[in-house]
Structure formats: C-alpha cells, structure tokens
Amino acid sequence: SKDDSNVINKNKNMPSASMPVEITRLEFPHVNGGEDNPVVVHKVDGEVNFSLEWNNQKRAQRWTCYQMYESVAEKKGKRKDAFKPDTDIPAKYRSELKDYAGSGHSRGHLCPSYDRLCSAVANEQTFYLTNMQPQLQGHNGGVWARLEQRIKDGWFYKKGTSEKKCDTLYIVKAATIDKKADIIGYTKQNVPNVNHLIVPKYFYMALLAYDCATNKYKAMGIWSPHVA
User: Fold this and answer.
1) Distance (Å, rounded) from C-alpha 113 to C-alpha 84?
2) Residue of 30, 42, 105, 109 marked catalytic
3) pLDDT 10s per residue in the chain (228 long)?
4) 3 state DSSP class of 167
C-alpha cells in the first residue's frame, strides 16, 4: 500500500492563541480563522455541547459541528423552543429574531434540538441563532429532517433499535454562503433596519463514525439542494 506518512494534511487545524483549543477535535472542519470568522464553543458543565464558526461580515454561520455518544444521546428533557441571539457574537455582527420574523424562512437548526435532550441547558443552547440557517420550511421539515433522522437511525443506532452502531459519531453541518452562484438570495431585502440574511443554495453534512470494538472509522458526505 502507498506510504502516506509524509502526506501533509492541509485541512488540519493547528492550535493558536486566537483560537479555542477545541479546534483540534475530530468533528471540526478546517477553520477560516481571523477576526471576521470567530469560532464559538458552547459547553455544558465544562463539556463541549457543539461548536460553530461565524462570519461577521456576512452575518452568517459557516458550520456547526458536534459529537453523538451515549451520554449526550440520552433523552432526559424536552424541546425548549428558546430561540435567541448568541451574545458570544458582537451585537453589530449577530443575527436577531427580527431578521427572521415574516421572512418566509424557518430558523433551521444545524445541531438539532432532538440531538440535545440530555439536559435543559444543552437543549436551550441549540436555539442560539448562530446555530441556524434560513431554510425553506419544505426543506427544513422535509428532506433535511429525514436526513437527520437517517443519521440517528442507521449511523448512530442500528435501524429501528436503541443499539448503537458506533461509539462516537462526529458530525459537521453547513451551508454555502461564500459564492454568489451558491446562494439563492437574501431574506427581507426590502425591509429596513433588519439584517438581510443569506439564503444558501445548498446544505451539506459530513459524518465520521468510530467503532471502538473494531478500531475502525467510516465516513460519508451528503449534499442537499435547498429546495422545498
């Protein structure tokens, strides 16, 4: 087999004074970095709940990443519907509730509320607007919801059972926000005094499953056109 021991991983995140140490975790994609792309790590009792990268100038989320494992998969609470701005982002750069109101777009979770019912605090954090992308409800409640269910029922659990298929599932979810050709447009373009949020043309996710018993990984990527 080919010796790849000297291959440089250009996507590897390197620790730095300006970035949280968590960027080296397996669920993290390559970070853009810099002042305009802050990485936010939300924790519960010192443990990482989920993380994200935000683009200040675009007022848009680049990605959310998180892990699924036995303790976080426990269902101890209920959905909170506690939608709110994320104060870890400066006010002039963050999205607000009014930016979505009447826009015709859902506040679409990237780290799902359903995946964080292990505690009230963990669930509440999923409702930060930094964990959202504007989605057509037909996509958010349709193909995207079905994909999220398939992640749980087929990748993390054995289908139709509560038996786990892997010990840890590393997940990153995102949408296209950079190129004009990869966005549909903006929310509420004709409304003054609100942020015109990017409406992505595509959503995508990447999965990495680790099985401790076999010491093996498997991975998959999913690309989803943003249509109702």
Assistant:
1) 14
2) 109
3) 455 667 788 889 998 888 999 999 999 999 998 899 999 999 999 999 999 999 999 999 999 999 999 999 998 989 999 999 999 999 999 999 999 999 999 999 999 999 999 999 999 999 999 999 999 999 999 999 999 999 988 899 888 788 899 999 999 999 999 999 999 999 988 888 888 999 999 999 999 999 999 999 999 999 999 999
4) coil
The model's pTM is: 0.92
Q: Which residues, 6+ apart, have CB-to-CB distance to 164 below 8 Å?
A: 70, 73, 156, 157, 158
30 is catalytic: no
Dump the DSSP string for 63-121. Answer: EEEEEE-TTTT---S------B--TTS-TTTS--HHHHTTSS-EEEESS-GGGG-S-HH
Tokens of 222: 């999913």
145: DSSP letter: H
